[in-house]
Design goal:
The protein is α/β, with parallel strands linked by helices and 302 residues long. It is built from 12 helices and 7 strands. It has a 5-stranded parallel sheet, with helices on both faces.
């Protein structure tokens, strides 16, 4: 198995913690995570939730530059920095390096004119996706099975309205019981076909997790489209990991739903189909013809 969500990164900000390693595969691994987390002594979620760092998604650093994965010192840093993205990354970077909650919130408050214009509409999704990324990486917090009341207590220092927090946690509960989905063949399939397939999974707020590689063969267009819909991402392997059978097995192992894109009458992904079905994953097969390649409208991915 290639590995759990990637831990080796080109990061910005202080690296305060490395995620726990995975034990087992796929659904079993996540169950082991939960059992392991419950055995940890002395962990107080209410005290630790906003003191815990985590990695953000792999994002472009600039034209022609390698992607980077930033480190967020806390969920509050994630939430405050998102107010400025994607148009003002310099403000995001300042918040990433803010040593305290107070400084991060003050910096953000004084620059309210630079907040994204749809902030009030997207802020629930921002908080839910941040909790999702934290849950995927920090099994010691036991967020995948913790009582929502404990999570709510841990979010107190965000100083957000109680009704807002309650609504977000209700949707977080929907997310953490949702599907882990990986896509095979999306890097070579027509983007219009990929767009239609992934659009079927979308709802107004995060309800599923993307299981993705992070190397040169990753379908980054699909990945970035999911990020724009605030879908949390679990990464397999590292940027230098080859697009090999072991990597494909890791993606299928960690997912519980596999979407495979295959050209009609081709057998390129037969092994992946057999492997996924053998592991009793839910398999969705998207067949396309060479003529579909001519349609580059990106329907569903706009």
């Amino acid at each position: 198995m290639i590995g759990a969500p990637v831990r080796s990164v080109k990061a910005s900000g202080p690296l305060l913690w490395q995620p726990w390693p995975m034990h087992g595969k796929g659904i079993v691994a996540r169950a082991n995570h939960r059992r392991f987390a419950r055995r940890l002594a002395g962990m107080n979620l209410a005290d630790e939730l906003l003191k815990t760092s985590f990695f953000g998604p792999w994002v472009p650093a600039g034209e022609g530059e390698p992607r980077v994965q930033h480190v967020y010192a806390s969920l509050l840093h994630w939430y405050e920095s998102a107010k400025f993205m994607p148009l003002h990354p310099t403000h995001r970077d300042y918040i990433l390096h803010s040593p305290t909650f107070k400084e991060a919130k003050r910096y953000s408050r004084l620059r309210k004119d630079a907040w994204r214009s749809d902030w009030n509409m997207v802020r629930p999704s921002i908080l839910i996706s941040g909790l999702g990324m934290l849950a995927l990486q920090r099994s010691d917090l036991n967020l995948m099975s913790a009582e929502l009341s404990d999570i709510k207590a841990g979010l107190g220092d965000l100083a957000l309205p109680e009704r807002f927090i309650d609504a977000c946690l209700e949707r977080f509960e929907t997310w953490r019981t949702g599907a882990f989905v990986t896509f095979i063949g999306a890097d070579t399939a027509p983007e219009a076909i990929v767009g239609k397939a992934v659009a079927k999974l979308v709802s107004p707020l995060p309800t599923w997790t993307l299981v993705s590689s992070c190397n040169a063969k990753t379908p980054w267009r699909l990945h970035d489209w999911c990020l724009s819909r605030f879908v949390p991402v679990a990464y397999m392997g590292k940027p230098e990991t080859r697009n090999s059978r072991p990597l494909q097995e890791s993606l299928i192992d960690y997912a519980d739903q596999v979407v495979i894109f295959e050209e009609k009458r081709a057998k390129k992904h037969d092994k992946a189909i057999t492997l996924a079905r053998g592991k009793r994953r839910k398999v969705t097969l998207e067949i396309y013809t060479p003529a579909d390649e001519a349609n580059r409208s990106l329907e569903g991915m706009n």
